[in-house]
Amino acid sequence: MSESTGIAAVDSVVLWSLAAVAIAGALGLLWRLVRGVRRIATRVDDFVDDWNGVPGRPGVPERPGVMERLDRIETRVESIEHEVTPNSGHSMRDAINRVDVAVSGGPPTPP
Questions:
Q1: Whole-angstrom Cα distance, residue 20 to residue 61?
Q2: Exposure pattern of 42-63 as b/e (b: 16+ CB <10 Å)?
């Protein structure tokens, strides 16, 4: 501020007003930055909880993590593979082959 009004009280009020506006602007920017960082931190925390799972507590059931869910899926797939591939004679595929042989009177046709 290079120019002065010549009245010290007015110059002082203008200077303090500019300082207050600058401080308020800086606080506003800082508040927005903190709010954004907090939102990101909350999302990261939610992701970590979903990845690792959350133990049960009163009124809220347990939520398994991603690795436990993948293990369950793999177990189901292995069970399905056991039923649809010929193996020791106990699978669904073996039963269908036995029915095919009994009905057609000949060896099963390859799929």
A1: 52
A2: eeeeeeeeeeeeeeeeeeeeee
Looking at residue 53, the DSSP 8-state letter turns out to be E
Question: Are the C-beta atoms of residues 50 and 59 closer than 8 Å to each other?
Answer: no
For the residues of 54-106, what is the DSSP string, one character each? E--BTTB--EE-HHHHHHHHHHHHHHHHHHHS--SS-SHHHHHHHHHHHHHSS
Q: Is pLDDT of 79 > 70?
A: yes
Any residues with CB less than 8 A from the CB of 78 and at least 6 apart, and which? none
pLDDT digits 0-9 by tens, 14-57: 999 999 999 999 999 999 999 999 999 999 999 998 899 888 88
Report field, pTM of the whole predicted structure over 0.90: no
